[in-house]
Amino acid sequence: MSVREVSILRDNACTTNDMRRFSGNKEISDFTNRNQVHIGNSSEAAAICSNESGFSLIETTIALVIILVALLGVFFTITFAITYNMGNNSRAQTVAVLQQEVERLRSAKFTPGFTDPALYGTAAAGTAYTTTMNGQTFSVTTVIDNDPSTTAIDDETTVPSSGTSFKEITVTTVLANPSPGWQTAVPAKVVMRRVKSN
């Protein structure tokens, strides 16, 4: 057998089909039932067939680790995107609840002859209630100052509504039960002034 034929056999990993091409050579006998190649003596066969290509266990393990790291990166990115979108949704709902409360206070009467009880001055802590929108519970706090020209919050006992011509109203809305915890930074707040009018 020539060096060229041995090289071809080595490159083609000693498959049965490749052996059939050399079937005319007396030194090669093909055992198709056992997929073995016999070339002269066993050391020659071992030299030709030992160069079989394939993945070792270490190479396969390293490839799996690399794929796992890439998949974990994708997983964390998707998790972050979902959490971020949930935060955006919560912020939008918080603003919607805030807008409802502001519209309710704007529609309350504040005239020289009548002040709606919703516009009565409150203590510094304000009045609070909870409301639900789309399955989320929000806490709404309203602080009404009857005399914004002073630093203190003046309620009905200090400055009655009949003795003031304008009020400063602060409305704060926040998630009652934030989940995940970073949503505690989602409060919405508005400060507005109401002037006594006819």
Quick summary of this structure?
The chain is α+β, with helices and mostly antiparallel strands and 198 residues long.
CA-based shape: rod-shaped
The number of helical runs is 4
The separation of the N and C termini measures 115 Å
Strand fraction equals 15-25%
Q: Overall pLDDT, averaged? A: 77
Number of domains: 2
The strand line-up of the biggest sheet is 3-4-5-6
Structural class: alpha+beta
How would you sum up the major sheet? Answer: 4 strands, antiparallel
Q: What's the gyration radius in Å?
A: 41 Å
Q: Please provide the ordered H/E string of secondary-structure elements.
A: HHEEHHEEEE
Binned, the helix content reads: 25-40%
Number of strands: 6
Indicate the low-confidence ranges by residue numbers.
Answer: 9-13, 18-23, 25-39
Polypeptide structure, described:
This protein folds into two domains: 3-49, no CATH class; 91-195, no CATH class. Helix content is 37%, strand content 22%. The chain has helices spanning 3-11, 16-21, 42-49, 57-107; strands at 28-31, 36-39, 127-133, 136-145, 166-175, 188-195. Strands 3-4-5-6 form a four-stranded antiparallel sheet, covered by helices on one side. Strands 1-2 form a two-stranded antiparallel ribbon. The model is unreliable at 9-13, 18-23 and 25-39 (pLDDT under 50).
